[in-house]
Write a structure and sequence with these properties.
about 55% helix
Length: about 250
């Protein structure tokens, strides 16, 4: 007979009725930043999950849906499991405050994808937001250049200069020469539309980097010696096939 396997999901920053809970010790409401639920429950709440492909090539990243593939490489299984257990323990023993390891929910800076991505790669970031801002930046830059080229190429008919103009003769000049404010307006439009997504992307990166650094500091400070040794062996290829015991330990904890 084949036994059923229950798959659990670490649901970061859950929605709906799971957004807050009452702390039994302090009788105060605190935010729920993660929970463990079954895969079927998660699918019923959010729909079918997308599988992320790590260490994907340029062509794959260009053709696949945003957020489903990345050039980053996933960490070894035992390290991913260790990060997950670290977050579970970090959230369960600390009160929600400004010093919490997990930042409060933010659609750009800290969401379910940023937490999952940190567990897999060690980087606190969201591929969907980064891809969206990069595409927006490229699109706005393209539209600004296209608009400027279009306006400068347009011509208008005006009366000819001097005596020939009195006789009704006309000539063609560029639109920009008759409307001198057009070029500063286009330049201002390009500056605003290109600078805003670039500024927002840099701000997101700053927040992502700060959270990544904070989590790394606390994670490695609390990491057991055998985990550190196992990582060194893995990353230096001293023992490329010696990770099974470590993975089994974290999977059964």
């Amino acid at each position: 007979s084949v036994s059923k396997v229950l798959i659990a999901i670490i649901d970061f920053y859950p929605e709906g009725e799971f957004t807050s809970q009452i702390n039994s010790e302090t009788n105060t409401k605190e935010a729920v930043k993660l929970r463990v639920i079954l895969l079927e429950e998660w699918k019923a709440a959010y729909g079918t999950p997308y599988k992320v492909t790590y260490k994907a090539g340029y062509l794959r990243r260009s053709l696949r849906r945003s957020g489903t593939c990345t050039s980053c490489e996933s960490g070894p299984t035992f390290l991913v499991l260790a990060r997950i257990r670290f977050l579970l323990g970090a959230d369960s023993v600390r009160m929600v405050s400004s010093t919490d390891l997990l930042p409060s929910y933010h659609s750009l800076h800290s969401n379910s994808e940023t937490a999952a991505f940190w567990c897999k790669t060690g980087y606190w970031t969201t591929m969907q937001v980064a891809d969206f801002l990069h595409l927006t930046l490229a699109g706005q830059l393209k539209s600004s250049i296209t608009l400027g080229a279009y306006v400068t190429a347009q011509t208008v008919t005006v009366p000819a200069a001097g005596f020939w103009g009195y006789l009704g003769f006309t000539t063609k000049v560029t639109l920009a020469s008759t409307q001198p404010l057009l070029l500063p307006l286009i330049a201002g439009y390009g500056l605003v539309t290109v600078t805003m997504p670039l500024w927002l992307l840099n701000k997101c990166r700053s927040n992502w980097d700060n959270t990544t650094t904070k989590l790394h500091e606390h994670f490695w400070a609390a990491a057991p010696n055998e985990l550190i040794v196992e990582c060194i062996e893995k990353w230096t290829d001293l023992a490329p096939h010696a990770t099974s015991d470590m993975e089994e330990k974290y999977m059964t904890m």
